[in-house]
From TrEMBL:
Signal peptide: none
Location of the 4-oxalocrotonate tautomerase-like domain: 2-58
Gene3D superfamilies: Macrophage Migration Inhibitory Factor
Protein name from the UniProt record: Tautomerase
Family to which the UniProt record says this protein belongs: Belongs to the 4-oxalocrotonate tautomerase family.
Xref: SUPFAM superfamilies: Tautomerase/MIF
EC number: 5.3.2.-
Organism: Variovorax ureilyticus
Length: 74
């Protein structure tokens, strides 16, 4: 009975995208591990951006730092 937990930031993930994530994760477990899709559970948690960190920074600050570090195209 596989259990898959997907966590994403709460930034407008649509119902259709969630449906695709659930189907895709289930299909992967069926294909790779021969699991029964009827007993495969997929849970999607949406996390507020303020509650997510990357590289010791809140993700919003990390993204700003990454954007500032990218070369600008002319």
């Amino acid at each position: 009975m596989p259990y898959v937990r997907i966590e994403v930031t709460r930034e407008g993930v649509t119902q259709e995208q969630k449906k695709q994530l659930i189907a895709g994760a289930t299909e992967l477990l069926v294909r790779v591990l021969n699991k029964d899709p009827a007993t495969t559970f997929v849970v999607i948690d949406e996390v507020d951006l303020d509650n997510w960190g990357v590289g010791s920074l809140p993700v919003a600050e990390w993204r700003r730092a990454q954007a500032a570090a990218r070369p600008r195209s002319t």
